[in-house]
Amino acid sequence: MTETVSGAGSAQASQRGKGLTIQRVFSTEGVHPYDEITWERRDVVQTNWKTGETVFEQRGAEFPDFWSVNASTIVTSKYFRGAVGTEAREQSLRQLVDRVVHTYVKAGREHGYFATDADAEVFEHELTWLLVHQYFSFNSPVWFNVGTQSPQQVSACFILSVDDSMDSILNWYKEEGFIFKGGSGAGLNLSRIRSSKELLSSGGTASGPVSFMRGADASAGTIKSGGATRRAAKMVVLDVDHPDIEEFVQTKAREEDKIRALRDAGFDMDLGGADITSVQYQNANNSVRVSDEFMRAVEEGGSFGLRSRGTGEVIETVDARDLFHKIAKAAWECADPGLQYDDTINDWHTNPETGRITASNPCSEYMSLDNSSCNLASLNLLKFLKDDDTFDGETFAKAVELIITAMDISICFADFPTEPIGQTTRDYRQLGIGYANLGALLMAMGLGYDSDGGRSMAATITSLMTGVSYKRSAELAGIVGPYNGYARNATAHKRVMRKHQAANDAVRTLHVADNQVHKLATQAWADVIKLGEDNGFRNAQASVLAPTGTIGFMMDCDTTGIEPDFSLVKFKKLVGGGSMQIVNQTIPRALKKLGYQPEQVEAIVAYIGEHGHVIDAPGLKTEHYEVFDTAMGARSLKPMGHVRMMAACQPFLSGAISKTVNLPEDATVEEIEEVYLQSWKLGLKATAIYRDNCKVGQPLSDGGGKAKKDAADKADAADAAEAAEAATKVVEKIVYAPTRKRLPKSRTSRTTSFTVGGAEGYMTSGAHDDGELGEVFLKLGKQGSTLAGVMDAFSIAVSIGLQYGVPLETYVSKFTNLRFEPAGLTDDPDVRMAQSIMDYIFRRLALDYLSFESRSALGIYSAEERQRHLETGSYEPVEETGSAAELVDAPVVEARATTAEPVEAELVETKDTEGASAREVPAQRSAGGAHTTAELMEKITGTAVDSPLCFTCGTKMRPAGSCYVCEGCGSTSGCS
């Protein structure tokens, strides 16, 4: 992306002050990025589906035609500034991007980042191009604040500090409050506060850190975050050798017991319920900071000393395994606490001479000095997948160079909530570049998430990203100087760079794609070592892997952060409030990469659309199942699959990874112990777990686990009450019986000959006068009399069922994808592959007798319709509402966006800003009652997604890193 003014592309210290020469890679010279895009106006309306209340509305918002309805809805409602309905309100993505980019360019000019004004202009165009084409996004505070009259806060992650004094504790409350008010989150370590087992100077007994957590928790619950309805995001850490560690471990587990007791007594204890505020410690994530000494004692079964905060002497000795078991048991009960591995964290610390790393931000990805902050940005990995299904490492590296430059510039003009945070950030300039869509990328490349190939690919990409980031940091140090704290930490910083380089050398590539990326990463780290020796570094930290919740939707990512794909089916919003169920678009690409033919791909995709998984999908080899493993569902990843992926990427990150290891409801405490132990051995910096249904305050759609048992108990009670009432009064019994609709004596029929897997046969179907199917007769050629008799009996049974009103759609849904021999190729161009004769028969009947809308819902299309979809993106025939020329030129776009109840047949209006002619595309109705992908998966699989409902729009959220994000409106459960 960029080069320094020297011909070799490196920035020597002697060149300081000359600025960067920016290379044009993405944008086109002489053409502004906006002029390459087709723009359209959309109406954005968000509705709470539970109450029917309109929670947001803005008409005529302008977006590129390739942005999804979901992306434009979330950006309009979350990031556009100004009062809605006034002239001050932003109306276009152009205004939003210009507001941010122009601020960055202006600061870059003022602080000597660019060699010439022409370089500044190229930087502006390149940054704009990457943003509007969804190649990356800054974190939310940038979009909220930069270029507005508000303080220019660009950081989402904060770490505070608290000492053992009342002044410091009260200051902690105040600083957290201001951070929450601004919409961000913070974390801190309470281990400096004396335990409840130690004496005060006055002779009294100290309260201990857990008591002070109550006040901070109440403050967070009252202020909320950003003035919105969601809870604040905070992290509380306590060292494992603190004398109050057992009390800390038990805090949330005991409160969960209280929640259950109050719920059973009839109180509303759901997340956000009227009575949940009476319970303590619910507004923070808790983590125990464990040392290598403690973990070795756990392995060996030894004892461990708890130390006085004042003198450091051991005041109590505990059994290490017993304490470790209590930690895991508490996590089993309520998902808290997580673990942070102190020695691993500080072994990768670039600034140990300044101070230790004692805490993290709420999501555990940012780990640095006390009273510091970090601004984040994430790249959309799928954008860098080339047509040959290899990762474009060179272009990726160019994008990283530009983004890291922009992120560093932001610190020059940024505001901070407190002066200590501002001073530390300006002195150490911590950055957090990361990525999203890893799960989708690996699937599209035909690589399993929990496979050696998948981990190798993820590791090399992460290594390249961080290597290029530090290379650019060293180049910037040669131009605008290293960070202020570099001189005292130079030896340690360079040692960590060598550790990253050694980890990169240890990666063993397995295929062409990761080998290409690894070569680029190896060269980048060699440049880091050389340039760092000459120039130092501009930034103490460069990379983290954040949840990417809201900004992931802004980039239209299928997956967030380092996460695998959530599910194989997705919920897509359409114009007018409708929705449709779609199979992930990466699946056909993955199947093609794996060598499947178009007919096979179509059959597999149709199967996934119906079942939500790939088990027994027609023609799919079992060895390819792992490519389609997801976070939930029938082929959900094992817990250690998540841990191993994190371990593959962790050595190439300055910070850590925001991710929760999900376990099934029947997981044991010992399994959680194993996850925590293996995470330490594999070199992770932090681990959090979540066991399904371990918390009461997680509203479920269909009641899995405990909720299912509660629902069953209530149903039994209701049945008993109804039975008692029935016994005391006479009830009139009404019987409903179906009526047979017989066919006329003379009816229209058609006979179809077919071949399935070499077996020949004939089907005769008869219809009523209105065209509705009424009978079917099947005959297989050259078959024995027994099979002929069975087919006759089957035909009679189906025919009678049809005449008694059984919908043909029901038969089609039950008998398609039924798998037995003979199976294989057919002689029917509309149904090229069949899994059995029954599969073929009912697909053919659907094509002959069902409407297009009904067939679309079942994923059955004719050959002509499939060809049309390849050419136009639509299966539906175009209605000729204008001239032939108008129809050819009319773009196919989604023109308006709303969030409301799905309707039977939604229309996608097709128009551009010039008022081109329209065409209409019927949308496939989503699964009844579903409003998000999480709810859709619940409907398809019959299992619950254990996550909260969105406070804004009422839909089921889904996991993103260590928090939850709403697909409907972009709200998060706590992470900014």
From TrEMBL:
What name appears for this protein in its UniProt entry?
Vitamin B12-dependent ribonucleotide reductase
The TSCPD domain sits at: 744-848
As recorded in UniProt, its EC number(s) are 1.17.4.1
Molecular functions per Gene Ontology = cobalamin binding; cobalt ion binding; nucleotide binding; ribonucleoside-diphosphate reductase activity, thioredoxin disulfide as acceptor
Q: What is the lineage of its organism?
A: Bacteria, Bacillati, Actinomycetota, Actinomycetes, Propionibacteriales
Task: Specify where the region named Disordered lies, as residue ranges.
Answer: 908-931
CDD domains given in the database record? RNR_II_dimer
SUPFAM superfamilies, A to Z: PFL-like glycyl radical enzymes
The reaction(s) this protein catalyses: a 2'-deoxyribonucleoside 5'-diphosphate + [thioredoxin]-disulfide + H2O = a ribonucleoside 5'-diphosphate + [thioredoxin]-dithiol
Domain named Ribonucleotide reductase class II vitamin B12-dependent N-terminal is located at: 43-134
Name the keywords, alphabetized: Cobalamin, Cobalt, Disulfide bond, DNA synthesis, Nucleotide-binding, Oxidoreductase
| Known role | Catalyzes the reduction of ribonucleotides to deoxyribonucleotides. May function to provide a pool of deoxyribonucleotide precursors for DNA repair during oxygen limitation and/or for immediate growth after restoration of oxygen.
* UniProt source species: Nocardioides perillae
Q: Which Gene3D superfamilies match?
A: 3.20.70.20
Q: What does the record give as cofactor?
A: adenosylcob(III)alamin
Identify the InterPro entries for this entry.
RdRp_reductase_class-2, RNR_2_N, RNR_lg_C, RNR_NrdJ/NrdZ, TSCPD_dom
